[in-house]
Amino acid sequence: MANTLSGKILALALAVATALPVSAAPTAASLFGAEKRASRQAPQPIGTYARGCGAGLVQLPETGPTWQAMRLSRNRNWGQPEMIAFIQRLGAHAAAIGWKGIYVGDISQPRGGPMTSGHASHQIGLDADIWMLPPRRLNLTRAERESLSSISVRSADQRRVNGNYTAAHAALLRAAAMDPAVDRIFVTAPVKIEMCKHATRADRAWLQKIRPLYGHNTHFHVRLKCPPGARSCETQRPTVAELSKGGDGCDETLTWWVTDYLDPPKKAARPAQPAKPQPRKRGAREFTMADLPRECRTVLASD
Ligand SMILES: [Zn+2]
Q1: How remote is the CA of residue 99 from the centroid of ligand 1, in Å?
Q2: Rounded to an integer, what is the distance from CA 134 to the centroid of its chain?
Q3: CA atoms within 13 A on the CB side of 175
Q4: 7 Cα to the center of ligand 1, angstroms
Q5: Could you report the per-residue pLDDT of 44-63, keeping only the tens digit for each?
Q6: Any transmembrane segments, and where (predicted)?
Q7: Per-residue pLDDT tens over the stretch 95-131
């Protein structure tokens, strides 16, 4: 049959059909990653920190009196107006404790959303990474902002802070945690352990907001609350008060990070059981638009 004309057409059609990929939906990360500027909409965080997007985000000026945005090539210095205002307040605090200001790492992409590299969160313009490196200068060139690296404040064995950690770090973190707009702050556990040791009995309520997490030894991660009236923004659950059961989190759940987390106790030998296949949890990088709130389509389509 291949010799007949209709046979040739059929063979050709089959070849074309098999060569074409099944039309897979593009990832949300690729769509949001391609956006170069904010949507022309009223500012609004949409969805959750790790599954959402941001309408009407504002660009943090690359350099201000008390800050510089780093890694400008990533174009991730966009946030909700509340975040931009917070960074300005934090920069002023940094100056008050003797630093030149702060180096600001990633906030969000121009329209938020999942990213093709890095963070699972930072999707709605209410997360920002602040470098542990105290700025020496606030006149870094674009090239210097690409090449300069932050410093780690954690020892190589991950159990304590190292000589890079100073009282100024503690003061800056305390100022950040006391800011009413802040929901929680992620730091490497040794930093919180150190802060627990030095906090006085009368001045430690804010410690609840300082949360230990893996990584976070070269930067701390500030997460703001959903701004008042932001109806499409979902507050994180459990709240920090629920997590620390009303306490300050200076307890065994904190010590776990520098003990069992690093040295998991050997499990008692159990009879071998066939492992049940678990469905793999999809990461933010694999999300399609169907995984995000519907309003995110409007954010993407907006001018
Ligand atoms: Zn972060």
Answers
A1: 21
A2: 20
A3: 18
A4: 59
A5: 999 999 999 999 999 999 99
A6: none
A7: 999 999 999 999 999 999 999 998 899 999 999 999 9
Mean of per-residue pLDDT scores for the chain: 91
CB 114 within 8 A of CB 87: no
Distance 14 CA to ligand 1 centre (A): 48
Q: How far is the CA of 223 from the centre of ligand 1 (A)?
A: 8
Cα separations in angstroms, 79 against 41, 83, 133, 160, 172: 13, 6, 22, 32, 21
Distance 128 CA to ligand 1 centre (A): 6
Cβ neighbors of 277 (< 8 A, separation 6 or more) are none
In the reported structure, the alpha carbon of residue 257 is separated from the centroid of ligand 1 by a whole-number distance in angstroms of 19
